[in-house]
Amino acid sequence: MRRRGGGQDGRVLDVLALSFPDLSYQLKACFLYLGNYPKDFDINVERLCQLWIAEGFISQEERGEDKTMMDVAERYMGELAQRIGFTKLPSSIGNLRHLQTLDLRTSYHGEISVPNVLWKMEGLAYLYLPFGYICTEGKLQVDGLRNLETVQNLALDVVHVRDLFTLPNLRRLANVRVKEKLKDLTMVNKYILNSNHQLQHTSITIQICDLRSKDELSLLRQLLGCVCLVELSIDGIIGKLPQYEHQLLCPSLTTLVLKYSLLEEDPMATLEKLPNLRNLSLFSYAFVGKEMICSAHGFPHLV
User: What's 164's DSSP letter?
Assistant: First the structure.
């Protein structure tokens, strides 16, 4: 880390050289692993994190009760990214009371620091939160933003789900992420099934390890009856799809992703009746039965 150079490469090396000795053993290993890639190579962050895990760079001791190895790897990525000048939002942004659009999305999926001042920005109509992990004081508040029409990447382990009920003009709720807490899924259901809201488009990602109980299957059944649900991704064990009457199938659902569902019965008899489904993805043990059969007239709009 003593080498200096000109231009952008030299600046990055200069910054890292000041802090490299202070990195933990794991972070040093993760950083040095980047030497395997050629200059200007586009690195897939998820793939890199997986390689770090495979190499044994990610500490099991840092997982915690509700964290995965990938969570820890992405946190490592965030720490390294911050060393070379990445995404901390200043608290003074809360003073922009009349700002209408705040887009915090980046190609970087690590941890990003966001001050808990968004609730002060009364003029916000479009809020795009980072896809990666958000570091903030407590849970990020978005309550009372009466002009808000669009929210994207709303992770309910970071933002209070109850805040949704204080957003009277919300029309687009994109990529709501529900992780492990059944009560959060219950509250999301309660909100989107409420006839008083203005929602026209909702997409939800559910990451709950096991969804096989009667209560959880009932929640899924309710979701698929929601007229504003357009995209649904489920990462967790279902075992079998909820049973519905044909007329209750979600009329708006265009995209469905199932992962680790462990479906034993052929799901096609149910899925092919979704009237507007255009994209269906089955990943990583979504189906573990013997065969799936699609009828000649099923999936009328599948691309």
Answer: G
- H-type helices in the chain, by residue range? 7-19, 25-33, 45-55, 69-83, 182-192, 214-223, 268-271
Give me the numbers of helices (H) and strands (E) for the chain, helices first please: 7, 10
Calculate the CA dihedral of residues 244, 234, 129, 138 and round it to 10 degrees: 100
Residues 267 and 203 occupy one common structural domain: yes
Residue 238 one-letter amino acid: I
Is 293 among the domain residues?
A: no
What are the helix (H) ranges across 109-224? 182-192, 214-223
Instruction: Report yes or no on whether pTM surpasses 0.70.
Output: no
In the numeric block, the tokens 């200096």 are attached to 4
Pairing of strands 279-283, 101-103: unpaired
Same domain? For 69 and 163 the reply is no
Structure tokens at 112: 């990003």
Rounded Cα gap, residues 164 and 188, in angstroms: 8
Q: How far apart are CA 275 and CA 273, in angstroms?
A: 6
User: What mean pLDDT is predicted for residues 172-196?
Assistant: 87
Grade residue 172 by pLDDT with cuts at 50, 70 and 90.
very high
Tell me the residue range of the domain where 160 lies: 91-283
